[in-house]
Amino acid sequence: MKESEPELLEGGRRLQGTRKNHSGYPLVSVVTVVFNMRDSLANTIASVSRQTYPNIEYVVIDGGSTDGSLEVIRESEALIDYWRSEPDRGIYNAMNKAIDLVTGEWVLFMNAGDWFWSEDSIASMLSGSGHHELDVLFGDHEVRYSDGRKRLVKAGDVRDIWKGARFCHQSAFVRRELQARKFREDLKIVADYEFFYRAWLDGYRFGHRNIVVASYEAGGVSDRKRLISTIERWSVVKGGLRVHTYYGWRLLIEALKMVVRKGVGNFGQR
Fold it and tell me: Exposed e or buried b for every residue in 59-82, given b needs 16+ CB within 10 A?
């Protein structure tokens, strides 16, 4: 007997025939992917809804949550242009699904637990004319820590992207034509980094604005698994002796940090 297909649930203003049409303002597709993050999701949706920019398409992709996240989505349906809920193969699979669904000129990922730093983040980034010739427009970001601390982080020089991410994904606006290239699902942690690194190698145009765009909480998978993250980045970066020396050194540093943390933890248990 053939197994039944997982149920696909969907909704949003798009299915009701409502489409954005604000001439003079490029359509920005903001995407949120979520899996079992009910409380964080509510904050993210509220952040998107408060943006003053008048032409936003909001897409939410849920991985089949069982913690009430779907109920939050349904309660917020009036704020969402399209949402979908079904099992997926992980965060990058969910993000790739979203890429096939967005229609905006620019695409920005603001996943559950992330939010815009101010109500004017999008409007400020897309003001003026300096971004018209760019393929990736990125700003700065805020990091939130579990002890209540917050830290503003200025984006780095994109010419050093071979060393690692120079800006956070949540602060980056990507042209939809470029975003159609999607993320490598075989990479478990650094597929977004690989996407931007590959775009830089291929000659796409990057630009930075001194505007804080996003706020995200420290402690994500790339923070918790820094050794694996470093190995994955090394696997995608092209180069000779300089690259291998740099990543060999980074691996040594991360390995030593792990030893120290483990030692401190063991000492605290005595």
Answer: bbbbbbbeeebbebbeebeebbbb
pLDDT per position in the chain (270 positions), as tens? 455 566 899 999 999 887 776 778 999 999 999 999 999 999 999 999 999 999 999 999 999 999 999 999 999 999 999 999 999 999 999 999 999 999 999 999 999 999 999 999 999 999 988 889 999 999 999 999 988 899 999 999 999 999 999 999 999 999 999 999 999 999 989 999 999 999 999 999 999 999 999 999 886 554 457 788 889 999 999 888 999 999 998 888 888 877 766 654 554 555
106-129: b (≥16 Cβ within 10 Å) or e: bbbbbbbbbbbbbeebbbbbbeee
Between CA 137 and CA 159 the distance in angstroms is: 14
**Main-chain dihedrals φ then ψ at residue 43, nearest 5 degrees:** -65, -40
> What is the pTM for the complete model shown?
0.90
Task: Let me know: does 109 contact 169? Beta carbons within 8 Å.
Answer: yes
β-bridge mates for residue 142, sequence order: 152, 215
**Whole-angstrom Cα distance, residue 135 to residue 199?**
9
In this structure, are residues 143 and 218 in contact, taking their beta carbons and an 8 Å threshold?
yes
Task: Tell me the CA distances in angstroms from 36 to 33, 97, 135, 181, one per residue in order.
Answer: 10, 18, 33, 27
Helix/strand/coil for 139: strand
| Distance between start and end Cα atoms, the chain | 56
Query: Please, what sign has the CA dihedral across residues 143, 183, 138, 235?
Result: positive
The full set of domains in the chain, from first to last, is: 9-220 (3.90.550.10)
